[in-house]
Write the C-alpha cells for this entry.
Amino acid sequence: MTTCGCTPPVAPPADPSYRRVLWIALVLNALMFGVELAASFSAQSVSLLADAVDFLGDAGNYAVALFVLGLAPVWRSRTALWKGWLMMGFGVFVLAKSAWQWSTGVVPEPLTMGAVSLLALAVNVGVAALLYRHRAGDAQQRSVWLCSRNDALGNLAVLAAAAGVWATAHGWPDIAVALVLAGLALSSGVSVIRQARRELGGTRVMDDENSRPR
C-alpha cells in the first residue's frame, strides 16, 4: 500500500511450499473420491458415500484454494465464505441421505467399509500433517485445514461404523456415523463463515478509511 492510502492492498506472495501441499492434497482427494464412491455402492454404505462426497468437495476446495493464492485478501475471504456455505450444504445432504437409508433398512457390508476407510484415513492423516503448519492463516487457509482435519475424524468414524455393523448386523451404526459427519460439516461451515465475515467486515472498514479525504 502506498503512503497516501489510496492503493488497494497488494496480495502477499504465495508460499511455494503451501502451493505444493495443495496440489498433493488435490490429487489424492480426487483419487480417493473415485475409490470411495465405487466402494460405497458396492458396500451400500451411506457413511462411506458421505465420505466420498466429502472427498469430492475437498478436491474442489483445494482447487479453489490454489486459484485464490496471491489474490487480494478480500477475495480469499469471499471464497472462504462460499466454501463455508458449501460445507453446510454437504451436512444437509448427508442428513437427507441418512433419512433415506433409514427408510430402506439396508445393511451395509462392513469389511469393504473398514478396508476403504483405513486407506482413506492414511491419505487424510498425511494431508492433514502436510497442512498443519498452515492452519493459522486467514479464513481461506483455516477452511482448508478444517476440511483435512474433518476428513481424518470422519474416517475414524466410518471405521467405528463398520465395526458396529459387523457386531450388530444392523445398519443403524452406519446411519449414526453419517449423522455425526453431517454435524461436523455443519459446525465447521459455521466456523469458517463467521471468520470470513469478520475478515470481510475488517476489509470494509479499511476501504472506508482509505476513501476518506486526506
About this structure: The CA atoms of residues 135 and 145 lie 5 Å apart. Residues 1-13, 205-211 have pLDDT under 50 and may be disordered. The helical segments are 16-43, 46-68, 73-104, 110-131, 139-168, 172-211. The chain has six helices and no strands.
